[in-house]
Write a structure and sequence with these properties.
35% helix, binds cytidine-5'-monophosphate
Length: 298
Amino acid sequence: MRPRRFRSFAKINLGLEVVGRRPDGYHELRTIFATVSLHDIIDLTPTRNRISVRSEHPAVPGDETNLAHRAAALMQRIAGGGAGVDIVIHKRIAVGGGLGGGSSNAAAVLRALDLMWNLGLGLEGLMEPARMLGADVPYFLFGGPALGRGRGDDIHPLDLRIDHKVLLVPGPGGVSTAQVFRRFAEDGGPSGTPSRIDSFLRRPLSPGTLRNDLERAAIAESPALAEVARRVRRAGQAAGAVLSAMSGSGSSFFLLFSDAAGRAAANRELRDAGLATVRCSFLSRRAYQNRFEIRNAG
Ligand code: C5P
């Protein structure tokens, strides 16, 4: 049978604030998610019962520990058995990069199987399985600009037009989310300073004031990350970036520019310094939905 082919987009966090500690041990967050055009491609082929996952990327697990596999297993349970799927992930989003790649893949499998198996769950019905899979998965059901609260899984879509040019700098990896939150807590936890996200949302003129509260902890955990952060910041400053920040708990950084020339200059400098970069653009919520399936695949 021919596979159906889907795009699984990456996100960046335009600002990430840690507001407090929750009774469940997680941290209370406030963050603005935004989808960028960088994406993995996922091929799904229906099977009789079997669920399998594979990828040519060595860091993507080929077993049931893969979040995409767990997403398919959840959907199989909801469907009441009798259908399976072979999942092939063509990886382009940096793994462990704070770009939500694994969560995006899982959400894509949820959405795609809802379509392929005619379950009719829709956004509402997929919310619960998404939450069970991880804090970032619910966001990827929506896409586009959205405010995330709670563990990051309480999603409020935003009518925000962001059209800055994005330059992504996938980081060296190697720092786990849990490690970064632990270091953040050890270093004193939430600072209690006023939310810049709140003031940005009241007057969304420039994202330049937004901050990522986890950046210091991530840098403290990894000298390699500290070096990337320094180079990205310097290139951004020289080329007139509007914002230079880390995404999620790292290890990717990004620069935002109001014009392509600034981005091109920073891109040259970072590449000359031996860093990989990805130029991309933001996606609206509508574009995120419309560009999900790639038709005529095969
Ligand atoms: O959501 P994810 O499984 O990636 O989170 C990994 C770890 O990061 C959690 O087990 C928790 O220790 C920490 N975390 C947190 N607060 C959040 C999200 C994650 O403390 N909102």
